[in-house]
From TrEMBL:
Domain Peptidase M20 dimerisation: start-end pairs: 188-280
Source species of the chain: Sphaerobacter thermophilus (strain ATCC 49802 / DSM 20745 / KCCM 41009 / NCIMB 13125 / S 6022)
Keyword Cell wall biogenesis/degradation among UniProt keywords: no
Entry-linked Pfam families: M20_dimer, Peptidase_M20
This protein's UniProt keywords: Hydrolase, Metal-binding, Zinc
Cofactor(s) annotated in UniProt: Zn(2+)
GO molecular function terms listed in the Swiss-Prot or TrEMBL record: hydrolase activity; metal ion binding
SUPFAM superfamilies cross-referenced by the UniProt entry: Bacterial exopeptidase dimerisation domain, Zn-dependent exopeptidases
Protein name per Swiss-Prot or TrEMBL: Acetylornithine deacetylase or succinyl-diaminopimelate desuccinylase
Length: 381
């Protein structure tokens, strides 16, 4: 039987709001996460934990705190502290959290400093009540999720292992059991230069690149009952920035492809090469994958972790979860698909992500803490 009074104390609303606001106040664009990570580590130390700063690139450490409590399963809690750049038109200072009713406004409040704060409070609560569980809890606050995910990659490259992972990204209404992957395809087209007055003597790389792009819709996209594959052209460059009357001999384009389980970077490259071959073009096409690459991921709904999570969610909310599948990418892709850790993405409700006046729903910060604590007490036995 779970101690409801302990759950309420561990998820105190005012403490959660204060901690989230403190994190929001520290600007943490990708590449600038050092200060906020040191603040995370200091809070953990002040609350009886022993965090480590794991180097990645430059002044951009991950924060890792382990709570070991005898033999048993390992639960990994993960969140990122970097934010996107502040959009124009905020109605208040993006780095000064503003509370209005049940909403807490601030850059990164929803994506995802409230989720990081929740994971910090969960870790402290479990460290203080070791009599309730057995095993290991690993708290990780990572950098660079909004760019290349070097923080998550560093954890995986270091060999992190766990029996379950909860990524506390905002997903309150639809806890996430999977998501599309991402392939960034770079295409280089090599033609032959000639005088612009004699185009027949050259091979126009810009034209040949355009021919391929015009037929992209002919490529078959992967099919999945819960996720949607898609593709879009992000850029196309050719010719010289300086005015010259020369048929361009090189062109480069970038295509963003979201893939579903069953598709890989190699399968996408094979499809692109087949499309280029079908053009019978006089130009040469070369394709490569640029970073970041994210594999698609999916957690089976009948997995024991999902069953335990469903019990915890229902105990807190009084209803079964309506699981969702993420149309974008996150670090959950890596923990699930690359590290092979059973993973669920679940965190507070948030609105306006990557937009001005982003906000997080305050009651769901505490709700997130209680759901995950219920899950932890069920799992860590």
């Amino acid at each position: 039987m779970v101690d409801e009074q302990w759950l309420r104390a561990a998820s105190d609303t005012e403490e959660a709001v204060t901690l989230t606001s403190q994190l929001v106040a520290i600007r943490s664009y990708p590449g600038e996460e050092g200060a906020v990570q040191r603040a995370v580590a200091e809070w953990l130390r002040e609350n009886g934990l022993e965090p480590e700063l794991m180097p990645t690139e430059g002044d951009r450490p991950n924060v890792v705190a382990r709570v070991e409590n005898g033999e048993g399963p390992t639960l990994l809690l993960n969140g990122h502290v970097d934010t996107v750049l502040a959009a124009a038109g905020w109605s208040s200072d993006p780095w000064q959290a503003r509370r209005e009713g049940d909403r807490l406004y601030g850059l990164g409040a929803g994506d995802m400093k409230a989720g990081v704060a929740a994971a910090m409070l969960i870790t402290r609560a479990l460290a203080q009540r070791r009599d309730l569980w057995r095993g290991t809890v690993i708290f990780t606050s990572v950098v660079d999720e909004e760019a290349y995910s070097i923080g998550a990659r560093a954890l995986i490259d270091a060999g992190i292992r766990a029996d379950a992972c909860i990524v506390t990204e905002p997903s309150w209404d639809h806890p996430t059991l999977g998501g599309v992957g991402k392939v960034l395809v770079r295409g280089d087209v090599i033609g032959r230069a000639s005088h612009g007055s004699l185009p027949e003597e050259g091979i126009n790389a810009a034209v040949e690149a355009a021919r391929l792009i015009a037929r992209l819709d002919e490529m078959p996209l992967g099919q999945h009952p819960k996720m949607k594959s898609s593709q879009s052209v992000l850029s196309l460059h050719s010719g010289s920035e300086q005015y010259v009357i020369t048929v361009p001999e090189r062109a480069r384009f970038t295509i963003n492809r979201h893939i579903v389980p069953g598709e890989t970077n190699e399968s996408v490259l094979a499809e692109m090469r087949a499309l280029a071959d079908s053009l019978n073009s006089p130009a040469t096409f070369e394709f490569a994958i640029d970073p970041p690459y994210y594999p698609p991921w999916e957690q089976p709904v009948d997995h024991p972790l999902v069953e335990r999570f469903s019990r915890a969610y229902a105990a807190e909310l009084g209803k079964e979860p309506e699981f969702g599948y993420f149309p974008g990418v996150s670090d959950a892709n890596y923990f699930s698909a690359d590290a092979g850790i059973p993973t669920i993405q679940f965190g507070p409700r948030a609105v306006g992500l990557h937009q001005r006046d982003e906000w997080v729903d305050i009651p769901t910060i505490g709700g997130t803490i209680r759901v995950i604590l219920r899950l932890a007490l069920d799992l860590l036995q």
